[in-house]
Amino acid sequence: MSATRYTYLGPAGTFTEAALHTLPEAATRELVPLSSVALALDAVRGGEASGAFVPIENSVEGAVTATNDELASGAPLMIYREVLLPIAFALLVRPGTELAGIKTVTSHPVAQPQVRRWLAANLPDAVWESAASNADGARLVSEGRYDAAFAGEFAAPIYGLDPLVKDIADARSATTRFVLVGRPGRISSATGADKTSMVVWLPDDHPGALLELLQEFAVRGINLMRIESRPTGEGLGNYCFLIDCEGHLSERRVGEAMMGLKRICPQVRFLGSYPRADRQPSTGRRPGTSDADFTAASDWLSRCLDGRADA
Ligand SMILES: O=C(O)C(=O)C[C@]1(C(=O)O)C=C[C@@H](O)C=C1
């Protein structure tokens, strides 16, 4: 096991790598690029790395399904950190290529919806094909397999390419969220601006099953930040839910919500509590849901059971 090795979605020059470098500890780790999210996470499961850094969601395209499916299945993993990175693409070409000469273009599938309108307006006849990552697309352009790739401008020098067009983004505020994933372990202390992630399988198929699950959060005043349904692979209609909520597992309202889910759902996978990258404190706190409120209520229950009930 290497405690100092982090794997990530490579090769060199991915947005994942750029986001990874914003983590202070990245400077003291051996950073190993791998060709897929699954390989990066398997290295952690197999003990060859202590962390894997992977994209999990994009504000335009939504879930990075490979990451979500990996977290929901196989040996359990946990999220320890998150990073948000604004995304804008450059069109990378071999030196001398002009826009009019571009017949084929490649990128990661999550990149394509972020540049769809630009592509339709500027390269309407070009054929787009998917690459394992944007940087891998750039590598394929350098090998002559495609005429152009959408990737970070910073990938251009790595692959001897030129950024023919810069700052391409259909949505100006496009952001990708990345997570540092490790084997299950102790969660970091609450910071006051935390997020808790989990995978939840629905209570048996009946009307209102999803509502019952959501009520565990609603009655405790917990704001959900993301809910993503993914097929379990066990037949049509079988879904699990990847949920991010505000707060830390050590907060009573979050802990009680998780216990509520555990009581009613066939399976709950805790994916970690970790600091929010945006540092925003939890929103929309309901009266009666602070730790002090929960403690006062359970003290009162004890007094009732002891025959010392008060008003
Ligand atoms: O291919 C890359 O450069 C990546 O880091 C992957 C990835 C992703 O999967 O979300 C990262 C950010 C962009 O939104 C598109 C692709």
TrEMBL record:
Reaction(s) the record says it catalyses: prephenate + H(+) = 3-phenylpyruvate + CO2 + H2O
InterPro entries (alphabetical): ACT-like_dom_sf (IPR045865), ACT_dom (IPR002912), Chor_mutase/pphenate_deHydtase (IPR008242), Preph_deHydtase (IPR001086), Preph_deHydtase_CS (IPR018528)
GO BP, sorted A to Z: L-phenylalanine biosynthetic process
CDD domains assigned: ACT_CM-PDT (cd04905), PBP2_Aa-PDT_like (cd13632)
Pfam family name, one: ACT
Pathway: Amino-acid biosynthesis; L-phenylalanine biosynthesis; phenylpyruvate from prephenate: step 1/1
Residues in ACT domain copies: 198-275
Annotated GO MF terms: prephenate dehydratase activity
Sites marked Essential for prephenate dehydratase activity: 176
EC annotation from Swiss-Prot or TrEMBL: 4.2.1.51
Keyword Transcription regulation: no
GO cellular component: cytoplasm
Uppermost EC category: lyase
Keywords from the UniProt entry: Amino-acid biosynthesis, Aromatic amino acid biosynthesis, Lyase, Phenylalanine biosynthesis
Residue ranges of domain Prephenate dehydratase in the record: 5-183
NCBIfam families per the UniProt record, alphabetical: PRK11898.1
Entry protein name: Prephenate dehydratase
Organism per entry: Streptomyces rubellomurinus (strain ATCC 31215)
Lineage: Bacteria, Bacillati, Actinomycetota, Actinomycetes, Kitasatosporales
